[in-house]
Design goal:
127 residues; alpha+beta; Nucleoside Triphosphate Pyrophosphohydrolase; two-stranded antiparallel ribbon; 2 strands; 27% helix; globular; DUF4916
Length: 127
């Protein structure tokens, strides 16, 4: 969280100059979930939504105090074994119902909880 406390987070990161989006997805998924995660990314990956993060949290509800940025959000099936690596302290699988709960949402910052709800709705998993 912005105050330095630990919170739940989704896998995220930048696309490097000259890097294909698909390659960036693989790099960030392996960095956070481990090299045995085996993400299933289509050859031509398409985001389920695009959101704008602003330093001012009142503009879109997606907040990054460092910058204004545009984020493409993807749903990526994982078929391997995940283990925390690099920036991840722990990994916990949760049900769609738990991920959509108010308590779970409150444990995420910057609008990531809202993005999780959008992903669940996109997958037809939001009750």
């Amino acid at each position: 969280m912005p105050d330095g406390s630990i919170s739940r987070a989704i896998v995220s990161g930048r696309v490097l100059y000259g890097e294909r989006i698909r390659d960036a997805l693989v790099r960030h998924l392996e960095k956070d979930l481990g090299s045995m995660a085996m993400p299933q990314i289509p050859a031509s990956a398409q985001p389920f939504t695009v959101v704008e993060y602003f330093p001012d949290p009142t503009i879109t509800g997606f907040h990054d105090p460092r910058q204004h940025c545009v984020a493409m959000a993807f749903v990526v099936p994982i078929f391997g074994d995940c283990a925390p690596s690099q920036d991840s302290l722990d990994l916990v699988w949760v049900s769609p119902e738990e991920a959509a709960s108010d308590n779970f949402q409150a444990e995420m910052s910057g609008g990531q909880g809202r993005l999780v709800r959008m992903a669940l709705a996109y997958c037809g998993m939001l009750l």
